[in-house]
Every structure is written in structure tokens, then in C-alpha cells.
Amino acid sequence: MELGAGSFGKVMLASLTKTTKHVALKIIKKKDNPYDQKRIKAEAQTLKITGECPFLCKGLAAFQSQLHAYLVMECESKTSLWDLIHSKEKLGMETVIFFSAELVVGLQFLHSRGIVHRDLKPDNILISKDGHIKIVDFGLVAEDVSKGMKLKAVVGNFKYRAPELFMRDPYDAGVDWWAFGIILCLMATGQLPFDDLSGMNYLAYLVTSTKPRYEKGLSRDARRLLNELLEKDPEKRLGTTGDIRSHPFFRSIKWAELESLKVPSPFKPEGFSPEDLKATYTGPLPFLEDPKSEVPPDDPMVLQEFSYVNSSW
């Protein structure tokens, strides 16, 4: 079963031998250029630490053949935040606050490790079988971003781009907080705060020059939080500065319990159906049949393998 596809390759639902567990297998065709080499290594390195935060998709292994890189990740559900919003049009405020708080924890963990996601969007946020969010797809991450360091590459879905990206200004982790604000608005209202129907150029004008627009009935705390996240000056944007956890919008959240997964989710998705599992990818993996699968020791694309992080796998 194909879980996703793009210019990078594809993600398949796969099964591990001698177990009933299922995983997501990301297959990336290697290209002979420094940018792609760096991107694959950055994604693999990020997956090594994801097991330290419950709101990131856990990496299990990384390996390669001469032609492909393979990333193995946990996979409990095929339901994304986008799927949920699309099916319900907008979410109840209890669910919005809960998922938003878990996203805050996930983003703060990444940023504390010098990682900027750069492609945060509802499609890249899965909901586990227990109803907790899992940030996925680290294919566009920037690593080793220390305080005061700025990035330049313009990447990510344009609907979630911060003003500094449209203006091609140097940027930092503030772009993730802007994207988080767009996602929060979409969860709460079913609509984006800037009209994207007229194309990227007009959206760029709206994002850089106009105020966000919200649906009537949005609470004062939600409006205030959105305005602080969708601040055009990244130096003043909440998340980049200030204490987002103490915002009145999150007054009901007990952060220690949330991080320990002791707060039950208001929503739990359906698991994989028998039909889904029948379509599970079982291999053999291409690298096992590839006669050129031996990787020269000096190959610049060698990925450092890492063991399964959970002995039950």
C-alpha cells in the first residue's frame, strides 16, 4: 500500500519479518548531486533522535543500496491532520487546543536540537492510533541551526510560507511557528487566514502586506494567539520569542501530563483496514536483489545505520 509519493520517491506500508508490526518504508532514489546527498543525510540524522519526543514519527532504521536510500519509520495510522480537517470541515475547540499543544511540544523539541522542519503542513502531521499527533517527513529539514544563524533556501508548501520566505529574506525557526499558526487557523475554522485561491503571487502579497482574516465566532484567546503567531516580523513572532506555553489559549493544558501521554486524546482515528494490510509491501526489498548493492567504503552517500529503537520491533 502506498502511503505517499512525491519528487523524492514514495512511502510504502511495509511489514517486518517474524512480527505483526507494520512500518512505513520511505524509498528515495539517490541522485548524484551534493544537495540531494545532504538532504537525505539530514533526514536520516533527524530520524535518529525522533524517539526522544512522543510527537515526532519515530525512526527505526536507515540503510541504502547503490541506487536507493531507505528510511524505516513507525506507522500506526494512515490518518493525517489534513484528512481529519477535510472530513469535518473544522475541529472542535477542545481538539484544536489538544493537537496544538502537542505540536508546540514537537516543534520546541526540534528547535532545541537545532532542527528547523521547513515543511510543516497538515499533510505532514499524522494522528496515531491513540489519537496523538506525529510530525512526519523530515526531508526538508535544516540541521545545526544555532541561535542567531539564518537560512536562505526557499522551500516548503507556499500556502504555509512565512513573509520572510516570500521576501527571500534570511530566516530561522520562526518559519515553523508561522506555519503552525496557519495550521491552527485551519483546524479551528476550516479556512486559511490568507486567501490562496488566486495563486502564489497574490498570496505572497496578502501574507507580506495585509492582516490575516478569521471566521466570526473565533474566541478572543484564539484570535490573540493567531495574531501573535502570524506576526510578520519574525523577531516578534510568538514561538521565536516569548513563552507560548503560558498563553491563555493553553490555560487548560497540563504540560507535564501532556508530554507523558497521560492526557487522553479527544479523537482516535480508525486503524488500517484488512484491505489496507493485504496491500502491505513485503518485499523482497530492491537492494537485496540489486547486483550492484555493495556500497564502496568511500561512497559519499553512505548513511550511518542505526538500530531499532524498540526491542519489541
How much beta, percentage-wise? 5-15%
What is the structural class? alpha+beta
Order of helices and strands: EEEHEEHHEEHHHHHHH
Name of the CATH class of the largest domain: Mainly Alpha
- Low-confidence stretches are 284-313
> For this structure, what is the CATH homologous superfamily of the largest domain?
Transferase(Phosphotransferase) domain 1
- In total, the number of strands is 7
CATH topology of the largest domain: Transferase(Phosphotransferase), domain 1
Family: Belongs to the protein kinase superfamily.
Pfam families: Pkinase
Domain Protein kinase: 1-250
GO cellular component, one term: nucleus
List the helices and strands and how they pair.
Layout: E1 2-6, E2 9-15, E3 22-29, H1 34-49, E4 59-64, E5 68-74, H2 81-88, H3 93-112, E6 125-127, E7 133-135, H4 163-166, H5 174-189, H6 200-209, H7 220-229, H8 255-259, H9 274-278, H10 286-289
Antiparallel strand pairs: 1-2, 2-3, 3-5, 4-5, 6-7
Overview of this protein structure:
The chain is an alpha+beta fold. It folds into two domains: 2-76 and 272-289, Phosphorylase Kinase, domain 1, CATH 3.30.200; 81-259, Transferase(Phosphotransferase) domain 1 (Transferase(Phosphotransferase), domain 1). It contains ten helices and seven strands. The strands form two sheets. The chain has a five-stranded antiparallel sheet with strand order 1-2-3-5-4, covered by helices on one side. Strands 6-7 form a two-stranded antiparallel ribbon. A hairpin with a 2-residue loop joins strand 1 and strand 2 (9-15). Helix 3 (93-112) packs antiparallel against helix 5 and helix 5 runs antiparallel to helix 7 (220-229). The longest helix has 20 residues, at 93-112.
